[in-house]
Amino acid sequence: MADALDGEFTERALPYLDAVWNVARRMSSDPASAEDLVQETYLLAYRGFPSKRDGDMRSWLVSICLNAARSEHRRRARRPIEELGVAPDVAHTSLRPDQVALANLDREALNRALDSLPDVQRTAVILADLAGLTASEISRACDVPRGTVLARVHRGRRRLAETLTKSGVADAL
Amino acid sequence: MHCDEAVLLEYLEGTLDPVQLERLEAHLLSCEECWWRVRADRWGRDVVRAAREIAPAALSDRIALAMSLERGRPARPRRWRAIAAAGALAVAATGAIWQTWSASPHHADPALVAAVVAVATSEDDLPDTLTVGADSVQLSRLDVGGAEVTIARSDEPFPMPAEADPVPGHPDAWAARRGSLSIVCVTRPSPLLVVGDADLELLVAAIS
């Protein structure tokens, strides 16, 4: 019986690993922390699965990931200030070094633009465009009305476009 | 049709019915403001989508191992591999630097650890229980990314070999290498010894 439950969890949860990874990656300071966050997300989901078998798995996983990330941020905020190195943002790619440099430059510009968004817009854009959630799924994951989600996603995307255009990273719209 | 943000937002979400869609598209032909909003939205969306990443190849194995340790049962990583993207197994970086030891058997290992290592590397069927003196452990096997690991469970903490390294950030956990074998031991929530020809960083990351 327990093995069947394990199998069901595996079948239903693993297809969303990329979506959860993209959320974790943006909620974490470096790839290693993102991996830890993804593992924690799946363990929390695994423990809670017996009572949550019905329902939208992707929204639920993303919701767990967001809450786990916020808990970690609050926990770190209570720690003494630590010396933190800036981890290189290495993409999982086989680009040449010069191509990696360009990709990282664009990635840095995008990261800065994303970080400049108001939190609610940033979260909405990450969930919609990195994790691939629909507005209804984001609404369930964040417990926010669907209409509000639509507005936040749209305003976030517009603001990103304006920021990246003004910074010269992208051609004018 | 006048500018209607709610309709525009549904259009951008792709949820308008055919009649509404036709009306809005006709409106876009004559409304510069709405047309600009659509362009900006699509551009912002596409830029972010282009930054999507695929999860590291080893992450699914790490999760499978962590789930197995959570429940005390061998996972079914073959299913995970069948579902997850194919690709070479990447090393899950932990930022730790580990020493390596020679390939020959290490005679200084505590008897219980040496016995588990011997069973892990044996061609024989794995027994359910291993008894060494007054110590008795439960054994199981797990396939992690194509490498088989042996898991020993005990009621008492496993003795730590002299040349093992503590695991940073994890009290009462240690790790060691014996040639190509990786050995990881944790005491909480229950004493576990994991031995196998799997990546040490992956095993450490899974118990983290």
Residue share in helices of chain A?
Answer: over 70%
Order of helices and strands of chain A: HHHHHHHH
Supply Rg of chain B: 27 Å
Which structural class fits the helix and strand makeup of chain A? mainly alpha
C-alpha end-to-end distance of chain A: 57 Å
How can the largest sheet of chain B be summarized? Answer: 7 strands, antiparallel
Q: Biggest β-sheet of chain A: count, sense, barrel?
A: none
Strand content of chain B: 15-25%
Put simply, the count of helices of chain B is 7
Tell me how many strands of chain A there are.
Answer: 0
What fraction, in percent, of the residue positions of chain B are helical? 25-40%
Can you tell me the overall shape of chain A? globular
Cα distance, first to last residue of chain B? Answer: 58 Å
Strand order of the largest sheet of chain B: 1-2-3-7-6-5-4
Give the SSE string of chain B: HHHHHHEEEEEEEH
Number of strands of chain B: 7
Quote the average pLDDT of chain B.
78
Biggest interface, chains and residue tallies: A-B, 52 and 48 residues
Summarize the structure.
The complex is a heterodimer of chains A (173) and B (208). Chain A has 173 residues and is mainly α. Chain A is 71% helix and 0% strand.
